[in-house]
Write a structure and sequence with these properties.
ferric iron binding; mainly beta; five-stranded mixed sheet
């Protein structure tokens, strides 16, 4: 049986820096916004090496837990200056950073509330599809414990979804495979 190499049409990278620029880049809110925080981390491959040609995208609610989107069950609400979306390529060291506002809780299934979180999509070389995960916040222990999505993850793996406090926001490393692999969701 012949073996063939993966062609550019079969992988999401390394073409990210060429085909997926975003005018606002890593700024879901304007740089310098007083209540803004950084979510920073490193994207690692299965061998534990940084991925220098990945792309991190985020989508989230505003601090009141609202989306400026028609699918928000409470109705779309625009927050001036807040884009709710960020996109950041990883650098030569696999590092990324998104400047945003900490989100509020959002409605969940059956009238429950989901803990404040940020949805994250990861694109990288060798991947045929994006992977999707979430960032939860360490100071939201009670909300995290009641979150229907986070509580569906086995206890030992939940820590891979909770950011760590950092000087100017939060640290959230993403491991695509291997030891301490980040939990990804099938969406």
């Amino acid at each position: 049986m012949a073996r063939y190499a993966t062609t550019p049409s079969q992988t999401v990278g390394p073409y990210l820096h060429i085909g997926l620029p975003w005018p606002d880049g890593p700024f879901a809110v304007a740089e310098g916004t007083p209540e803004g925080v950084w979510i920073r981390g490193v994207l690692y491959d299965g061998a534990g090496a940084p991925v220098p040609d990945g792309l991190i995208e985020t989508w989230q609610a505003d601090p009141e837990g609202r989306f400026d989107h028609p699918d928000d069950p409470r109705g779309a609400v625009a927050r001036p200056g807040f884009r709710a979306f960020g996109r950041c390529p990883t650098d030569a060291n696999g590092e990324y950073g998104i400047f945003t506002l900490k989100p509020g809780p959002v409605p969940g299934p059956g009238g429950t509330l989901q803990a404040p979180h940020i949805d994250v999509s990861v694109f990288a070389r060798g991947m045929l599809h994006r992977t999707v995960t979430r960032v939860y916040f360490p100071e939201e222990a009670a909300a995290n414990a009641a979150d229907p999505v986070l509580s569906s993850v086995p206890e030992p793996e939940r820590a891979t979804l909770v950011a760590r406090p950092a000087e100017d926001g939060y640290r959230f490393d993403i491991r695509l495979q291997g030891e301490d692999e980040t939990v990804f969701f099938d969406v």
